[in-house]
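Progress against Task 2.4 (sequence-to-structure conversion) is shown through the following example record, which the project officer requested during the mid-term review.
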Amino acid sequence: MARSDHVPTDALNKVAGEVADLIGRGLAKGLRPSGAPEAFESLTGGAGGQPLNIGDTLSVWRLDAAALKRVRESAAEGDLSRWAVPSELLFHVILLNKEPVAFARSRTRLESLDEKALCQLNESPLAGLVSDAVERVNRNEWRDPVAAAPDAVARLLEVPSYQFRGLWVFSEAREESRVLVIKAPARSRKLRWGGLLTTEQFFEGLRERRPLGGIS
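Structure tokens generated for the chain above:
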């Protein structure tokens, strides 16, 4: 079973409080549970019995411009872990009555405790896609050795210029990665939804199409 990168409980509670504040001020009406306002005032990452909770939380990683250039030139040798860089963002699945209905993004580096961590809150099918991807990796329906590795860690990989999102599963002990495709352009033949790819297959899929201009 792949774990996510460690996120301090205080950081999750801060995000939960900011989400609850937005809902309480009527800025995310679709997420407001039925009943009294108290139903979401105690929103936390691990609260039981509450209709609104934070589910899976993943660190967000990307391929920078230099890495993408090497990928396009077929010069990105070795495992994906050599090329992916952290974005200083976290992706949170928001559950309403245990169902993924929205996602939030928060910043991991704050200059003060008073600074807002939450930078995005969207009702979106993406929440369900990410939640489903995490479940599939945990089930390891492919019986893949990387997904089964005791030290496997799951992260959200985003490549905006290729309109790509995937779940990156990495085993440091094996020095090997897998990428589960969550979202990619419909015309991509090699980046099909639900495909579990090696680094080489993933890079081949990116090279299949030209990137969008002006987006890294």
